[in-house]
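Lab notebook: predicted structure, single chain.

Context: the supervisor wants predicted structures on file for every construct in the current expression panel, including those that have not yet been purified. This is the next one on the list. No modifications to the sequence; it matches the entry in the shared construct table.
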Amino acid sequence: MGILNVTPDSFADGGLFLDPAAAEAAAVEMEARGADIIDVGGESTRPGSDTISAEEEIARVQPVLHRLSRSVRIPISIDTSKPEVAHVAIAEGASMINDIQALTAPYALEAVAPTGCAVCIMHMKGEPATMQREPRYDDVLGEVKAFLKESVRKAMFAGIGRDRIVVDPGFGFGKTPKHNLELLRNLSSFADLGVPLLAGLSRKSTIGHITGRPIGERLAGSLAMALLALERGAKILRVHDVKETRDVIAVWQAYKHDA
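Prediction complete. Output recorded below exactly as produced.
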């Protein structure tokens, strides 16, 4: 899953793709480099970020989605928690809703359930503006798994089939580096939920904490994290560096299957 943020303030690529033509070119390039999904985001969810209105988010993503529906062949995901944005995105051709708030906004489940769209349900402790202010857990693995299990149950009760659901433990969303590493070590246990697992570790602050590298120098750490996630059962890797991650996947698959 290639990341395409059409925002002025995302932590790794804010401001690079505000122009719809630039965003379209980036998506076409990611597809050529091996992306299977493009994830379009119109609101930054980096730690400390503030929310924006649905109208502003729609104004950012709608012209991009309109272009991508005609220029790329792979599925388009929309990274949003707002039902209004999801409705517009689906109308423009998006086939997945990637929701950091796990479809908990009012009417979010009702907006998505009848559409046939896939959903990615993520765990987050708190809100982006405050989530990294000393997050605490008694048992981070147990609490995240319990939240995702209950979220899957609610989605299915609302009419979203299990075959449409992906879960994401939410690395970096209300979690310290220690919490993130504990989740990564035990990622294989999320198989119990019976749905595919997405891992979003690319360029995250935990890599900076471990390596001391700034955001623009975290490629090696991101690839190491991607490989660790693959080995532990991740089915979707949400990344900034598509070509390099695709090489990691190819080497891992050859090693696993003696290709």
